[in-house]
């Protein structure tokens, strides 16, 4: 078995066990037994169970941070950047739903050094969103009367809550849900002139798409 496959198996096993029994209700021995590996295999990838919990978080924060950096470097127009950031932000709740659920359930048990590392990445992500919002104001695309900090924290709060209600296989796909978030945010944020730009029309929903159940 490849090392990456073993690491993924350990993580998938721990996610299932943590969801069922809680972080402190699961031992390394249980993870080793359930994943079909050895203690040597476990400690080759993780120094401790605490580091394993940190890595579970790092998977999904690294994904959104990478996508936000890609959006920042690949798009010149702030509206396009923000659309890409929001769409990838929403998608993480489909790609890493078990990771996110376990993290929010068990994050209180993280040791300070891991909490600090997580804070660094979360701050980097937040700052990229704030930077995009500031650029949008300077470019005349985003309403100047709407404060950057409150807008940024509102976006983070709105989208983060997705982990509480999103269910794979629901009425809407994760991409459709992402488009709904984009529409809501851009409709409230863009200036009237920016909304009229032809290249941004594709970011707004057509009549009837946002109805029905999620």
Task: Note the topology.
Blueprint: H1 3-21, H2 28-35, H3 39-45, H4 49-74, H5 78-95, H6 97-106, H7 112-138, H8 148-160, H9 162-165, H10 174-189, H11 192-195
Plain-language structure description:
With 214 residues, the chain is mainly alpha-helical. The chain folds into two domains: 1-46, Homeodomain-like (Arc Repressor Mutant, subunit A, Orthogonal Bundle); 49-203, Tetracycline Repressor, domain 2. Helix content is 71%, strand content 0%. It has eleven helices and no strands. The chain has helices spanning 3-21, 28-35, 39-45, 49-74, 78-95, 97-106, 112-138, 148-160, 162-165, 174-189, 192-195. Helix 1 crosses helix 2 (28-35) and helix 1 packs across helix 6. 25% of the residues are buried. The model is unreliable at 209-213 (pLDDT under 50).
Care to give the gist of this entry?
Keywords: DNA-binding, Repressor. With 214 residues, this protein is mainly α. The protein has eleven helices and no strands.
Number of domains: 2
CATH architecture of the largest domain, by name, is: Orthogonal Bundle
Question: By CATH's scheme, which homologous superfamily of the largest domain applies?
Answer: Tetracycline Repressor, domain 2
Name the beta content range: under 5%
What is the arithmetic mean of pLDDT? 92
Order of helices and strands: HHHHHHHHHHH
Task: Give the number of helices.
Answer: 11
| Structural class by SSE content | mainly alpha
CATH topology of the largest domain: Tetracycline Repressor, domain 2
């Amino acid at each position: 078995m490849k090392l990456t496959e073993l690491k993924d198996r350990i993580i998938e096993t721990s996610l299932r066990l943590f969801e069922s029994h809680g972080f402190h209700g699961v031992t390394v021995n249980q993870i080793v037994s359930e994943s079909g590996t050895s203690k040597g295999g476990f400690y080759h990838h993780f120094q401790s169970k605490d580091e394993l919990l940190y890595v579970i978080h790092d998977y999904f924060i690294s994904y959104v941070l990478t996508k936000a950096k890609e959006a920042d470097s690949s798009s010149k127009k702030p509206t396009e950047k923000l659309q890409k950031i929001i769409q990838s932000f929403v998608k993480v709740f489909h790609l890493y739903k078990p990771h996110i659920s376990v993290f929010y359930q068990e994050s209180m048990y993280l040791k300070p050094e891991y909490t600090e590392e997580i804070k660094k990445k979360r701050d980097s992500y937040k700052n990229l969103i704030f930077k995009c919002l500031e650029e949008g104001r300077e470019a005349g695309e985003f309403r100047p009367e709407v404060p950057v900090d409150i807008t940024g924290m509102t976006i983070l709060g709105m989208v983060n809550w997705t982990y509480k209600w999103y269910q794979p296989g629901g009425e809407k796909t994760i991409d459709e849900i992402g488009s709904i978030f984009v529409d809501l945010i851009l409709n409230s944020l863009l200036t009237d002139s920016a909304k009229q730009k032809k290249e941004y029309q594709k970011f707004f929903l057509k009549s009837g798409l946002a109805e029905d159940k999620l």
